[in-house]
Input
Amino acid sequence: MKKFIPDSLISTLMLLAATMLSAQVHADDAANANPWGGDGRPAEFTPERIEKGRVMYKQLCLRCHGPEMVGGNNAFDLRTFPLNDRARFFNSVTNGKRAMPPWKGILSEEEVGIVWAYVGTRGGKL
Output
């Protein structure tokens, strides 16, 4: 004896399955979204932020990290900082690391982000 399944129920189940599959694909896309803009750099690396970062770098970082971000005298060579590790940069600047003093309470998160735009583009060269 065959059981009859109404076409409307089959259509509803197919629609539900397609919707769930589509939602999963979009969730996977969001999880794997590229934070880098179409020009190959993070969207936060705008020309305006890079320029503000240049000014801040000159005022705050140049003394230890040098004009070309090379470092020296125990300062980290910022040209080698991993571009995919923004969180590490924020942590190092905010909390300090080795000879670097913490900038927590001195620089806001926005200001650290502006310096990151400059450092992350290797002084606007990327």
Q: What stands out?
A: DSSP finds five helices and no strands in the chain. Confidence is low (pLDDT under 50) at residues 25-36. The two ends are 71 Å apart (CA to CA).
